Amino acid sequence: MNQPAADALPDAMWDAAVVGAGPAGCVAATLLARSGHRVVLLERHQFPRDKVCGDALTVASMAVLERLGALAAVRAAAHEVNGLLGFSPSQVELEVPARYLTLRRAKLDALLATQAVGAGARFGLAEAVGVEGGDGAASVALAGSGRRVRARFVVLATGARAGLARRLGLVEQVAPNAVGVRCYVRSRFQLDRMVTYYLPGLIPGYFWMFPLGGGEYNVGCGALRRGRGGWRGSLRRAFDAAVAELPLARDLFRQAESVTPLGAAMLRWGLGGTRRRAAGNILAIGETIASTLPFTGEGVAPAMRTGELAAAVVHEALASGAGEPLRDYSWRVEAALRPQHQAYALAQAAASRRWLNDFLARLSRPGGLLRGFTVSTFSQEHSTRAFRFAQRLSRVLARLRRRPG
Questions:
Q1: Residue 232 predicted with pLDDT over 80
Q2: What is the pLDDT of residue 404?
Q3: CB neighbourhood size of 367 (10 A)
Q4: I need a surface site. Which of 298, 300, 309, 325 has the fewest CB within 10 A?
């Protein structure tokens, strides 16, 4: 894929300017370009570029990729994993039948950006430093040159960097909810399932080991922010403790041939900290609006889903010449994502206490009361009665929290 500087792009009025070429931005750009609109996709880093992530694609991600027509290309480059092995704080073992694809985000994002360009979007390398709305048009200010890219609509897909959205009044909480670290390990040890370990002192965060194929593994851990008071301990120490305490991790590192340095990333999840998700002709999508799921930290699927929703409302607005569809965008995000986020927040709250985490792990074994809910949570195949019950319960709890007194 050719990656010209944005300054080399035509000085034109675009139908849509998408800022950020992660999964959410690429989905929005692809769908809008396929609908016949003039789309520019702006990205500040040249591909391939690294992104600290678990590198796992769930069934929900695969469903979006299939609708996008990208699943075959992603599957050809990815490693297929069947099954997850989970460990509670006391190392109660739990096997979950689940299907995943694992693929480094550097490769996934490059594939999706290439597809967007193939659909007709124009790619431009530049860092966006400002966005302004206006009557019938918006503009994106680019770093360095001082140039502005003009478009009828702007879609912000800047990930956890929510500064632009905050200046527009779309985001009130810029601080992330969680932080994650990961490294890549090449090892002679053979592991064919995803592994999670709810390390004491880190819960409801967890340690993970995800096979990428060819003897390579994505290994990391994530922790929640403790209110306004920072993070739950040192992630470096938590990572080292997990490797020391979990036998599978000890074996993986004992037979390791190479280990990359730990990289870190911030996460924004739970659909929180957003006043609104559209302002005039500017929309925000993906992790910018905290689309990442609580508990599991799965971000790719919900981010891509918001890309689909944004593309639909922008297309409707462009086709009708009216802005009414954009006013429906926040409602559509709520309808599509809020029930799932509430159910995952319920699971996160339950997993936050060590004794309860252990107890729930036992109830999630085959034949256990929570088996269906747990399988749905980790596989993201949300068709079981237990998961639907949890979604209904979370709605009731949310309504009760809003009641006065």
A1: no
A2: 46
A3: 6
A4: 325
| Residue range 7-43, pLDDT digits in tens | 999 999 999 999 999 999 999 999 999 999 999 999 9
Claim to verify: residue 45 and residue 133 sit in the same structural domain: yes
Q: Domain of residue 367: give its range.
A: 341-402
Same domain for 311 and 362, yes or no, is no
387 and 320 fall within a common domain: no
Total number of domains constituting the chain = 2
Sign, Cα dihedral of 396, 392, 227, 270: negative
Burial class of residue 256 (count of CB atoms within 10 Å of its CB; 0-12, 13-18, 19+): middle
- Evaluate the CA torsion angle 52, 352, 288, 36 in order and state its sign: positive
